[in-house]
Amino acid sequence: MASKLLAAALLVAPALSGPVTTTVATVVETATTIVETTAQYNTASHATTGDSHPSSTGEVVEPTPSPHQYGGEEGWRYHSPAFLPEGWTLEPSMPRWKTNGDSKLGFLDAPKLPEWLGGSPMNHGRPWGSRSAEHTNQYQDPPNTGVTRHYEFNVSRMDIAPDGVVKNGLVVNGQFPGPTIEANWGDYIEVIVYNNLEDEGTSIHWHGLLQKDTPYMDGVPSVQQCPIAPGSSFTYRFKADLYGSSWWHSHYSAQYAGGIEGPMIIYGPNTGSYDEDLGPIFLTDWYHDSYYDLVEQVMAPADKGLLPPMSNNNLINGKMNYPCANTTYDCTPNAGIAKFKFESGKKYRLRLINGGAEGIQKFSIDGMKMTVIQNDYVPIEHYVTDLITLGVGQRTDVVVEADGKPDDAIWMRSTLGPSAFEGGCTLNDGISPEAVAAIYYENANTSALPTSERNPIPKERIT
């Protein structure tokens, strides 16, 4: 039972500001329990229906956990790593409004981010004045710009299909992922949240912000506030007192696993040199079942013999394909993966965000080194790597140099790594643990499959 409650805590309440440091330890403990339990199940005789059910004698028959091979039993039908039927290109077979609603994240027309936002009373120079990453303690000396950034969030349900599998998801302003909040360091952010859900409350947490003087704006129901009741609204107002890349998400039950989440970018001093800010790279594990079914699963009595939920896919900016032959759900092949544009010779800032419910992300770009310039809200001494590891809630900003040819196309990858059944640390079913996106240089065909090969990373760095 203990492992079930740990898994429930992972899924329902990863609420700490900054990195969720307890998540890794919890996953390891949970994974160990699952591996031990799996070994016991696999050496005994059990029903193999995949669901717990009472036997004719009234005794609960426990399921045999069935970790799947990559691509599932029907994986041979698809061209990896984007799970395309043979001969298909990356021209998506679903329109964006069916997969992600009104979201532009992951599409080629997604806007690049500015160095800072306009509208400051200071009509020249940076909104934070002479403050710098090297010489200013942002915890002690945040600016006060006198500017408030206003947003409205409408929380509702709608059918979405981020990976081609249709589900009734939760969206904000008709988008999954939700809208990107932008502000300058020292601005105030004001968000009116309208709860259009008919049957439950909601709340929004602004991940990693200190909420000095505004602890009641942190968005954790039953701690800082009552849930926002159906048909009502609540106005959050707080200061952007730190700067960097982060995210916002529902903190009511496990709603953010159902879709109430999005990036939050606070512009401030930086120590990296780059030409363009490519914006958020939002990494999320994804479940085909409804979030409330997942909560029921993790909170079920021990005698049900249920294991914690396994994620079914992994997404980059809310997009990935799925090998549809492995599911009985309504599924469209080649729903569409995320795409990005590079120009040869330019340097790009990428804001990596793990907005998942449980999975540890391992991020890489084929053939590229990444210069890490910031972790969470903290500028750091730069270092170079070919693999970034992010726990749930963590963010890492990197700079990459587009050193390819004008007609190149390469893969961006984020993998959940081996599942707990295989001795890994992630609760996924093994069918689609790796999300891919395509990076196209200026003259490349944006429907073509990249032919790049993954970086030669030792296995121990992936597990």
Automatic annotation (TrEMBL):
Keywords: Copper, Metal-binding, Oxidoreductase, Signal. One of its GO terms (molecular function) is oxidoreductase activity. The keyword Metal-binding applies. Residues 1-17 form the signal peptide. It holds the Pfam family Cu-oxidase. Residues 42-58, 135-146 have a biased composition (Polar residues). Residues 42-74, 127-146 are annotated as: Disordered. Residues 155-270, 280-415 form the Plastocyanin-like domain. Belongs to the multicopper oxidase family. PANTHER family: LCC1 (PTHR11709:SF145), MULTI-COPPER OXIDASE (PTHR11709). This is Plastocyanin-like domain-containing protein.
